[in-house]
Amino acid sequence: MTVLDTDIRPEGPSRFVAFWQRYRRNRAAMLGLGLFVIVVIMALTAGLVAPGDPLARAADPLTPPFTNSSVPLGTDQLGRDILAGIFYGARISLLIGVIATLISIAIGVLIGALAGYFGGWVDDVLMRITEAFQTIPNFVLLLTLVAIMGSKIEWITLAIGIVSWTAPARMVRAEFMSLRGREFVDAARNLGVSNGAIIFREILPNAMPPVVVYASVIMALAILLESALAFLGLGDPNYASWGNMIGQGRAVLRTAWYCAAIPGIAIVLTVLSFSLLGEGLNDALNPRQKK
Amino acid sequence: MTEAILDIRDLRIALPKGSDRPYALDGLSLSVASGEIVCLVGESGSGKSLTAGAVMRLLPEPSVRVSGGSIQFEGDDLLSFSETAMRDIRGNRISMIFQEPMTALNPQKTVGWQIDEVLRLHMKASRAERRAHALEMLDRVHIPDPPSAYNAYPHQISGGQRQRVMIAMALSLSPRLIIADEPTTALDVTTQLQILKLIRELQREDGAGVLFITHDFGVVAEIADKVVVLRQGEVVEQGPADEVLNNPQHPYTRTLIASVPDLKPPVPKPVSDPPVVLSARGLKKTFGARGGLLSGKRRAVTAVKDLSFKLHRGETLGVVGESGSGKTTVSRIVTRLLDADQGAVELDGKDLLACSPRELRAMRKHIQMVFQDPMASLNPRKRVVDLIAQGPIVHGVPPERAREKARKLLEMVELSPAAADRFPHEFSGGQRQRIGIARALALEPRVIVADEPVSALDVSVQAQVLQLLADLRDRLDLSLLFVTHDLRVAAQLCDRIMVMQKGEVVEAGPTADVFANPQHPYTRNLLSSIPGKDWTPPVRGIDAA
């Protein structure tokens, strides 16, 4: 028979290779990836570039950038090395970004998955809770939580995670609602697979791509939230974070603008890298959306 | 010989780099004369819809574009026209009827507004004249009560009526050429026949040429004057409908025609009385749309009322009906993917519907399901071997043994063992459905419920999958509950059928008896609506696949 179709198409490139080829086509996304890699390298090499305590005095206070080779980016009003601050700050920013994102995604996925899969009163209750969180502006909620829990870095990270889970929860819920009606879910139920396994093994892997994309946005927001807290003087003073640096540089903004501007640029570039990364991931994970 | 309205010469459409072939269409030549219906037939991926796109100049350029040949429309070269000139032609002198009338109509606008839009763009007439013309068109397509349909929104009228509205829109400016892209595929058989008759009737009156795209040889037999058969972008055969249908020359055409299921039911099995495996009693299901906290309840719809049947060992029972007849609901109640309101489904003397969740999970291995859409029913993120082995693993078979068995099952459904480590998206529709069947067999069930298992497949693949199901049923002594809307398919496979209408069985009996001597008027109507029923495919039987 001429149209017998039991021979199989040759194997295409593996998923990862295909993904990378699509990702590489987007120049802005490659720029984002480049910036991200630089930030990661900075975080990893902080101990090599600036050994010792970044909060210790390194040179005369308020040395302008490019005037003293031992402190290339100058010092702040307490004589602390700005370059060391930027490198060590990258660690804190990434740490807060990654952990707060994991916390918020974990809460969001759990609540969204339960609400979307079971529907009915479970959905009603969980969504009303979500809406209660959404009605409070998240920075106000963050300030309240930090005021209650104190401004240790662990609590700040947890608090940022807690204020940013609502959007992923709604997103996962929407994905689950559309996926739970698909036939492969019925097929799994028909095999006798339990609800838990259906939620986490069958549906969740299919619901993840948009969540992964959104995670990059949360990461950027988490870094911004931490900086904003530090700017208001509510950050953890025991760590050199970019927000702390801006917060302290504010006092000398008119005479030594660079104390605030340099960490500001670092924040802008890092947040930009996450946004570009997210957009690139989105295009590469959903190739059919564009063209 | 009347002059050609549309004359396509050596049309070639290029696909973007990295596609499975360089040209979607390669060297297509055809002509449509006035008053003629030319059917473009082919399986999915043959390039038939792109032909329509090329004529309308609606290809997704520049990635897919015409790279050679000419398209002459009433003597003008369509490919040389500017976009503005094309806009003037589209809808006015060439119009198109789409497959899915629900998505082709704007849900936000009334039917009248949408017909009026076409007239407003191409006709200089006052509002009152346009309205009169629109009403006349609605009347011509036999819509009952045109003034009320004029003010209705698309969701307020039935699928068949929506397609009539589409036809009214397409014909309202008396175009010279009508392109119909699978216009009846989404419709029930009885509606399909009415729409086919309507297209034929209107086209006779206006003398327009019709380029009719379809995959269904039954429809071709019903409507075509000329037939063009496409395979993978190449014309393999063309000629007058009689010739192609009754005396096909090219082997591919012969295969396609041979794959059209025969309307002759199988010879009834010798009367023995095998034990009853599955029996359903008094099933009832009402869908009451759930009201939220603040919204009131919507009107309930009875999907199945008081349905009973028995399924014997080794037997195939067909559940036949049009959309909305409740046949899919039956398949989901029996497998308990849906909970029935009332009734009992007994499998080996145990009521499936009364089982606790734990008992149910254990019972599930006796009754398995093959789903309609082979793409949607396989989790895209799992390898084939894991998909098939999943059921046994859930039921306590050690994973290694289950996987080993899954590989054997692949062989049983005629897939190469190399398929085991691939993902579902790497397979064609027919292959995916084989994987679905292997998954259902993995638990060694007594009963398989198949919900339209072949309706998403091309006709030649359909024949193979049906053959496979029949073979496996006989080899493994399975009982099959086979849900379908397609009477040709039912005739192929089912020993007995029950015909459902609006949630009730109107007729049941051995397939041969029902087909030869239908009792209920609804059954008679269904049988007489099968497209191409008067045409008997010349190549008898199906080669063993």
UniProtKB/TrEMBL annotation, chain A:
Limits of the ABC transmembrane type-1 domain: 90-278
Keywords recorded for this protein, A-Z: Cell membrane, Membrane, Peptide transport, Protein transport, Transmembrane, Transmembrane helix, Transport
Record keyword Transmembrane helix present: yes
A single GO cellular-component term on record: plasma membrane
GO BP annotations, alphabetical order: peptide transport; protein transport; transmembrane transport
Annotated membrane topology: Multi-pass membrane protein
Entries under InterPro entries matching the protein: BP-dependent_transpt_permease, MetI-like, MetI-like_sf, OppC_N
Protein name per the record: Peptide/nickel transport system permease protein
From TrEMBL, chain B:
Residue stretches making up the ABC transporter domain: 6-257, 278-527
Membrane-topology descriptor: Peripheral membrane protein
Keyword entries, A-Z: ATP-binding, Cell membrane, Membrane, Nucleotide-binding, Transport
Signal sequence, renumbered to the chain: none
Example GO BP: peptide transport
GO cellular component, one term: plasma membrane
Subcellular location: Cell inner membrane
Keyword Plastid on entry: no
Family annotation (SUPFAM superfamilies): P-loop containing nucleoside triphosphate hydrolases (SSF52540)
MF (Gene Ontology): ATP binding; ATP hydrolysis activity
InterPro entries for this protein: AAA+_ATPase (IPR003593), ABC_Ni/Peptide_Import (IPR050388), ABC_transporter-like_ATP-bd (IPR003439), ABC_transporter-like_CS (IPR017871), Oligopep_ABC_C (IPR013563), P-loop_NTPase (IPR027417)
NCBIfam families tied to this protein: PRK10419.1, PRK11308.1
Cited PANTHER family: DIPEPTIDE TRANSPORT ATP-BINDING PROTEIN DPPD, OLIGOPEPTIDE TRANSPORT ATP-BINDING PROTEIN APPD
Family that this chain belongs to: Belongs to the ABC transporter superfamily.
Protein name as annotated: Peptide/nickel transport system ATP-binding protein
Originating organism: Lutimaribacter saemankumensis
Record lineage: Bacteria, Pseudomonadati, Pseudomonadota, Alphaproteobacteria, Rhodobacterales
